[in-house]
Each structure stands twice: as C-alpha cells, then as structure tokens.
Amino acid sequence: MHLINLTVNAEEVRIEVDDRWTLLYLLREVLALTGTKQGCGKGECGACTVLLAGRPVDSCLVLAREVDGCDIRTIEGEAAGGELSALQQAFIDEGAIQCGFCTPGMIMSARALLMRNPHPTQEEVEEAICGNLCRCTGYIPIVAAILSAARKESS
Ligand code: FES
Ligand code: FES
Known about the structure:
By secondary structure, the chain is α+β, with helices and mostly antiparallel strands.
C-alpha cells in the first residue's frame, strides 16, 4: 500500500492505495464517485475520462499511486452546488444523452477543451471527443451541445 495525497473536485484526499488499483477503481470503488463509468477498461472507449491537472485521461489506464500530489476533476465536480453546468444542461437540451453511459466522459473531454479553448470550432470539438465512444445518439447532437455550451459560457 502507498499513502497518497490528492485533490478530487477541490477536496483534499489522503488515502492508502494498493499498487494494483487504477485511478478509476479508486474513484468508483473507494471514494464512491460512481459518475465516472467503466467501459472497456483498456483505454478504448473514454467512458472513464477524468481531468488530471486539467487534461483528460482514461482513468482506467492510470495507476492510483501515480496521482500522488495531483488535482483530479470528475463529473461530480461539474455541477456546482447541485446546479447543472451549462455544459450538462446543453447535453439535455440538444438531446445528446440517451443511455447516458458515455456522457460523463464526454463532458469531461469537453470541459478540458473549453478550459483551454473557450471558443472552439466544430472541428476542434470533434477532435476533443474523438476518444469518447457513443453507441446511442450519434455525434451530431453531442457536438451541437458542446458548441452551444461554449457560446453560453463565454457570453
Ligand atoms: S473504461 Fe477506460 S477507456 Fe474504456
Ligand atoms: S448516450 Fe448511450 S453511449 Fe452515448
């Protein structure tokens, strides 16, 4: 076991982690942050995307012991004070959610994009979510939702 310190959604966490735990396991099974989803478990679907120091990562590919001292943001950090963010609301408004399994990872990839580029083009949005698979809605409403949120957040 390793003792690590990290920040998760602006809260400090000090916890002993097993060498074999992934960041995804730590978030879901230990910290009970189950908004982050487990899909393929091998870096192919993006369902487990979280922000590590502001950059999107597949949390199934990161070992928990590697995030000592790091800042992590999950989908639970997106809604401030129980209010949906503009990005979350745009997914609802644009019909960009069906089963919802891909949505947390999709939103985290979108959030990373909007943090570094508040005025993305359609092509930049498509590139930002190219590692996130959706089997339900198709990508047109998802891209529309992200562009809509970008307009709202920067107005
Ligand atoms: S569960 Fe991590 S990429 Fe699919
Ligand atoms: S809404 Fe079902 S996988 Fe995207």
